[in-house]
Amino acid sequence: MKELSLHLLDIVQNSISAGASRIEIGITDSQQRDLVEISVKDNGCGMSEEFVQRVTDPFTTTRTTRKVGLGIPLFKLAAETAGGEFKITSEVGKGTLVYASFQHSNIDRPPLGDLRGTLITLIQGSPDINIIYTYTTDRGQFVLDTEEVREVMAGVPINEPEVLNWIGEFIQENEAELSAE
Ligand SMILES: Nc1ncnc2c1ncn2[C@@H]1O[C@H](COP(=O)(O)OP(=O)(O)O)[C@@H](O)[C@H]1O
Ligand SMILES: [Mg+2]
Question: Of the chain's two ends, which shows fewer C-beta atoms within 10 Å, N or C?
Fold first, then answer.
């Protein structure tokens, strides 16, 4: 069972490959609603409806003019195996929204994994992309917006180790505050 943070990394890497300059990542971790949600919204090149079909179900789609990977199908399978849903909404030239939900209590629901490490990896690798990360639990919500971090840091590159450390601590503190006792 692959941790959800690794699926997230795959999906965000797709957004980066699609030339996105802005990526909104949303995580919901709610025991009360028995729900885990992961969403990734980008302003990259987008996909046609037909192409979305093909990348989502590569085995049931007959026309295989182009080789496609398994990042999306595996994420979809993980969601559907854990009582959740999977959806891609995309528009060519505008961007893409990938959404996956999971039943929190489902025995097949993978753990969230190292979300903080994933975020840090992404920011380190793509410091010029605006990443807006929203984490929501039953106790509240926090937002990390790398554009705001960039403003506060006034000229210090966001992928400097000190800045990345600071971001990591910020995420850790907020996650700790929002996680259930
Ligand atoms: N956010 C996105 N924007 C545009 N195209 C995308 C996006 N995500 C996926 N794709 C397209 O779908 C294909 C399949 O993605 P995926 O299943 O993750 O496999 P892989 O990344 O190995 O190709 C990608 O190669 C890309 O062409
Ligand atoms: Mg991929």
Answer: C
- DSSP character for 109? P
CA of 44, closest atom in ligand 1: 3
Taking the centre of ligand 1 as the mean of its atom positions, its distance from the CA of residue 14, in whole angstroms, is 5
Q: What is the largest CA-CA distance in the chain?
A: 52
Q: What is the CATH number of the domain that holds 152?
A: 3.30.565
Output the six-digit token pair for 129.
């992309």
Domain hosting 8: range is 4-178
Total structural domains within the chain: 1
Identify whether the C-beta of residue 46 lies closer than 8 Å to the C-beta of residue 18.
yes
Pairing of strands 95-103, 86-91: antiparallel
Which residue in this structure is represented by tokens 């302003």? 43
Amino acid at 47: M
Atom 27 of ligand 1 has which residue's CA nearest to it?
A: 68
Give residue 181's pLDDT.
Answer: 60
Encode pLDDT of 130-142 as tens digits. 999 999 999 999 9
| pTM of this prediction exceeds 0.90 | yes
Strands (E), the chain: 22-30, 35-42, 86-91, 95-103, 130-137, 140-145
The residues of the chain scoring below 50 in pLDDT are: none
Residue 87 Rama label (left phi>0; alpha psi -120 to 50; beta): beta
